[in-house]
DNA sequence: CAGTGGTCTAGACCACGCG
DNA sequence: GCGTGGTCTAGACCACTGT
């Protein structure tokens, strides 16, 4: 028996959680003010805020400075599908997705050079994407492509942006190989504000590196998603019989 | 310019972080007591503890009740390799890994039934695994196998345990297909204490479902890793040429 | 026992959003 | 301006680890 230490803020979090999951407090609804809640539960505001922090970490509550605490819309978890994009990654919410793109040309630096395996200072096209599903932001992406492989001309024209937005979801010219690395971490302050999540809410980071048949890296994408909003799915089919990678 | 909000605990976290990363405080070393630090930085203990919480969330500091705050060993990030295990998942630390296994028979319930696609109450072999790399715990796994596919006889005998421990890392009888779902989330209280991480430190959860050629699910594994200790890698090779799924 | 972290309080002050 | 959340304080008390 693992001795569960009764902690007041956990109890309160549990209570509020059940009120949310049972629907007694509706999604989108505002909770009573922290002062009111602290009063109701007979605790100090600090303790009450700790309870809310728990729920925020679980993605149940969104705090908005100056306005209040709001119950988040139910987690319709969206799937990011790994591999080379045979399935549309955004199937579930495809229609409701709005993607904004900003593109520039940068020079390779730091770990970008190792990621893309290019020399320092090498020109890269950078696409910064943010996708929103309705109100709430739902994914960030920074995609880097060697400049000579990117569309010529103005990177900010319509077609380039469209391509980037598409790339965010699907790898259109199927590369020879894709290597994806997934990690769970806390968001950077930038990411936290861009995704409208708390500093404590975990994010799912995916680094995707695509290679062509010659082994050249044709794209590196750094994707970030709120942990409570998206899962990443990777399927490995064993083909018919003869194929078995390595050995 | 995004107005940086000066917050004392962040400043302190920054200061301590730099002292750690520059090696002024060595890995494994104990920090001064919270009271001392609070005194040194001229803040209240609460504020100082918030600073430490930040570092704990980043995996830089490990708190041990009654003993102190310790600098964690550097993050040698370990790779979990997706797919059906052609590469050893624990390459990096294989030698140093110690795995403990506890096995029982349970009846399918809740979402286990949907995961394994078996009726409620269906007998399952459950293997609870914990892997330790030296001192620090480094991964948890709960593996479920339909009872009739599991080794007959005592589940707790040596061979069964060995098999489970192996399964934790590699899928030995290569299944026809493997589907892995990765998510970033906060740890449950159990997981937090088992992994010796804070409630705020994100974990990487991987749900692995393996299917045989007939489409039957032969294994479901729920894996949990500290987010700062392991990344998951998924590689998709595009085979030779003829194969291109979907248009 | 002394020393450590863990939780909580009551109240202060600041920063944001909105009328 | 008012009501909201965000940060901080000084001090209390409890729980765990060692001797």
Automatic annotation (TrEMBL), chains A, B:
<dbReference type="InterPro" id="IPR036388">
    <property type="entry name" value="WH-like_DNA-bd_sf"/>
</dbReference>
<dbReference type="InterPro" id="IPR011663">
    <property type="entry name" value="UTRA"/>
</dbReference>
<dbReference type="Pfam" id="PF07702">
    <property type="entry name" value="UTRA"/>
</dbReference>
<dbReference type="InterPro" id="IPR036390">
    <property type="entry name" value="WH_DNA-bd_sf"/>
</dbReference>
<protein>
    <submittedName>
        <fullName>GntR family transcriptional regulator</fullName>
    </submittedName>
</protein>
<dbReference type="InterPro" id="IPR000524">
    <property type="entry name" value="Tscrpt_reg_HTH_GntR"/>
</dbReference>
<dbReference type="Pfam" id="PF00392">
    <property type="entry name" value="GntR"/>
</dbReference>
<keyword id="KW-0238">DNA-binding</keyword>
<dbReference type="InterPro" id="IPR028978">
    <property type="entry name" value="Chorismate_lyase_/UTRA_dom_sf"/>
</dbReference>
<dbReference type="GO" id="GO:0045892">
    <property type="term" value="P:negative regulation of DNA-templated transcription"/>
</dbReference>
<dbReference type="GO" id="GO:0003677">
    <property type="term" value="F:DNA binding"/>
</dbReference>
<feature type="domain" description="HTH gntR-type">
    <location>
        <begin position="6"/>
        <end position="74"/>
    </location>
</feature>
<dbReference type="GO" id="GO:0003700">
    <property type="term" value="F:DNA-binding transcription factor activity"/>
</dbReference>
<keyword id="KW-0805">Transcription regulation</keyword>
<keyword id="KW-0804">Transcription</keyword>
<dbReference type="InterPro" id="IPR050679">
    <property type="entry name" value="Bact_HTH_transcr_reg"/>
</dbReference>
